[in-house]
């Protein structure tokens, strides 16, 4: 009687742990995906900003070297 | 016992350890994520601040030398037809700054505003009152010239010139939009494309939006769909809409009347639109995909299994039979038996005739390799592929590989992976795979009924393709299938709404069950189905690989989400509208069910669906007869009834036969009076044999055809197992009885088939037995 | 012209049918000559429809059932035309039909194989009007049906070998073979030869093309699958035949073992002057077979010649042809040697049919490969076919070589003729008798009495072998209220008559319950059943 009860309990625990385990795998995958998304977004934004920055640097340089007389 | 317990304990503790370590890992990862997020945010902020500082510096530099500034202003205002030596391609903000119309501070303020609400910078500065609208327009008109999209992308640094050339070259052979080609080739992202398109058209780009605002401002779904536009923000003075491609003047005018405000358009990528649409109109889409058919053609919807009339008719029939039994049970039973025997006999004959038709060479539309090669790819239309799946994330990598093998320009593919909302695993797997941009994940919101046809309907609503096809997740279509279908549609009459590809199995060698299943499918798709089409009667379509003309499918009301064999049902409805269906000589390989229990589930679902479909269309038998014509009507009766009824009746007659030989009870032959006796005998002796023999011949036929094409993923050894077909009949009987039980108990319950048990090992296409 | 040509084979078939039927009816009705076996088959079909308890089982389980089965629809018209049954005309119609089918089949095969129209026509004429084939197309025997099925098989086999419609051909072979089995048992050996030929062709193809690509298992599987496709129908038919014999007659091999089977009938052979000396002597048997086969083997020389021209004598295809041609004669050699066959001429005709079915293929190949020799080949073909026709006619007119056909030719001297006239007389007499006594019943074993039964009108008063209660009534005629018993004189096969078997010496002495009523020509006697008990009192 007690043995059967205990096997039942073990089996229950077993199943629960199994599903937990799977759930956790999924969570890990989700977090990793999240990280990937953050990185991708960051890279994209950063690239945009950098292009803008370079563009501005260019403008600054051009202002500096702009010929005063206006002729070529 | 002890040892066993110990062993179990050990595995238990192993798992426990794994769980603990994973929990820790998750905590760790979460922290790391937060950390990274913050760090990156800081980087971005620093960068933004630096840009802001640059503006300030520029302003300062200009202020220091007013004389130079005047010259610069003149230079900029000079409308330059040729390439300007100085300040090439200034953006609007920079231009305003250099012209001294706004200050650096104002500019930075506007940029911040843009970051929060999105929209076009020009509009923002106007709204903030820094510049008047007229002034802005004047500046824009004098300073911007339209550039080619590719050129624009190269200038923005997203693309190298060589890459552009390559893409242009590709465009020449394939046709289509250059932007989409660049995306499909993986050279730019859809975001970059949209950005470039926005700047090319001098409109804004959808950057951010507030979901609550969007939800509050939403248009009726029909209007939104008509204009393909979503309202992002709606105030008294303006209405910002997100579009995939810009609306023309007239459309803008009409829409403006509806929203009662001037309209500003911002561009969004198809992917963003999809997401937006999903967020805003989920309910409407869901409603449409589940209720459309039910509302528009209630007579064709299986949302109700039995109508009142049908129940009454059944009760009346039941009473009549009971009364007749009481009056004279023997004659009644004989009478019923005679009817059943005649039905049985006619079904046998019909099936045989169909197979004879199916053996004709032209029963399938065939194309040679040369014909495929000589297709001008520029003529190929957009093609939508719907892949409904549920809890089969383990086959997704396979699926992607199989779909990538399709020989079709990638920029003309619109692949929609239809994932149920609660199938988180699949969603995560898809995200982690970084799929090419032709793949889109569509998340099907929760709601009853949760069936494959509902998912397909949901995916179909916004499908972009001229043609649409359904594949299951584990399907492997022949690479040239889409092109063959394209040709098939071209050379078929206009009323051809559907082209069915042939289905077969790649794991025929796994066990006896998969062998049986392969035989059945070989016969069904290679012989019977083409035969049925030759005879021009309604066709129960195969579950996957049916290619439709999108507009016709939509007009028809698409799939019935309440029907568990939506494909068979759709076949009948196609016929009702006088659309025709044909079979193309191209295969899709699937995975055959290899487990008995699973097989029974699947088969009983099919049989249930056939019964359901029959009940739906037989609500008004006379009207159905009128709609289908005499041939179509009886054909439909045959198609829908033979698969559930034959296996259900078989056990009765088999047991009669066995009882007769065991007991020689006199009452058994009495049920078979006169000619019926001979009919039953012919049935027994000839009918059963013919079924087995056609199974053998059909299997041989398919294998032989493959052999002639030098393919050998099906083996001749399959043929001998057809001798055991009666075992398969027994199994079908079990399934059909289960189906009847379920039809009455829970008609919409969807018995899920599991896939991907052991794909690699039993794959005959890979490990051929040479 | 082409369209017209396509239809001509059918017109020819119709014409041939009319000619054969006319000839058959002339022989049967005016000359009173129909072979006993042919009438017997009609009778079997007749019992199904018109005995006092109609059921399909009455068709009998001794002879292959298909010919009788096919006659049933024709016999449905018997009430309109009595002669269909009584003169065996139903059988004649059936064989004429199949003679026409065969001719059309051959004709179409020739045209399909691109043979000139007139040439094809000549071949078909020489085939259909070969004296033997013409006679058997009009006499109601089972041979013509068998010939059709065999020809069908061979043509399908050649198509398969030539990779035209391969799967369909196999299916055709399958069904034709099954139908052949339902017609004559010779099909077993023929089928075996066909099965072997499949193996040979598949193996030779493997050596030519596949050996490098596929393993031996692949070829084995392919062979096995092909055999199933081609042989399953005939195997299944065989099984069903045995099961039916078992279920209905209580013995799975009833058709082999029964009193009336061919085997039982040939028991008296050792005394036969022609066959007797042959039994147990291989040399003599061979000579016996060869002598009768020569007329039918002549066309094979054509193919041999073509093969020599094409340099393809030692090829798989030719080997198959030889196998098929030899299969049935080999069986005859064995059976003659064992004393189990009558060695009729009709047993040796099949090589002729097989060769002709094969011929179109050879002619096509010759035309394709050696155009300049094609005309020569064509001439030789026609010459050999004519020679064969002549030789056949010669053999048929020789009483020693062809006793059956000799009888047919000299019908008015044949015993069949006399016995038919006698039967007519007896039937007339019995009809009058039974008409007078409406409640009388007459027991007769249809094994010998079929001709009389067919000639009679009062058939519902008859008790015949196929009736389910025949045995019971035979065992106890008094109690079962049998009024008359008709019995033949126990000579030759008539000793196997059920009444003769059950009551020894019944013909000569009667029994205590039966009194002699009448004797017909010392061939048949009619006994009246009396109650012996009553007589004693």
From TrEMBL, chain A:
Coiled-coil stretches noted in the UniProt entry, renumbered to this chain: 21-62
Keywords, alphabetical: Coiled coil
Keyword Coiled coil tagged: yes
UniProt source species: Sporolactobacillus kofuensis
Keyword Coiled coil: yes
Protein name as catalogued: Uncharacterized protein
TrEMBL record, chain B:
Pfam family, one: MshEN
Claim: Repressor is one of the keywords in the record: no
Record bears the keyword Coiled coil: yes
Chain ranges of the Type II secretion system protein GspE N-terminal domain: 211-284
Coiled coil: 12-64
Membrane topology: Multi-pass membrane protein
InterPro entries given in the database record: Glyco_trans_2-like, Glycosyltr_2/OpgH_subfam, Nucleotide-diphossugar_trans, T2SS_E_N_sf, T2SS_GspE_N
Protein name per its UniProtKB record: Glycosyltransferase family 2 protein
Species of provenance: Sporolactobacillus kofuensis
Lineage, uppermost ranks: Bacteria, Bacillati, Bacillota, Bacilli, Bacillales
From TrEMBL, chain C:
GO molecular function: glycosyltransferase activity
EC number(s) per entry: 2.4.-.-
Origin superkingdom: Bacteria
Coiled coil stretches, renumbered: none
Transmembrane segments: 12-30, 56-77, 89-111, 117-138, 145-161, 188-204, 228-248, 313-336, 342-361, 373-396
Entry membrane topology: Multi-pass membrane protein
InterPro entries for the chain: LipidA_mod_glycosyltrf_83
Record localization: Cell membrane
Class of enzymatic activity (EC top level): transferase
Swiss-Prot/TrEMBL keywords: Cell membrane, Glycosyltransferase, Membrane, Transferase, Transmembrane, Transmembrane helix
Annotated protein name in UniProt: ArnT family glycosyltransferase
Lineage, top ranks: Bacteria, Bacillati, Bacillota, Bacilli, Bacillales
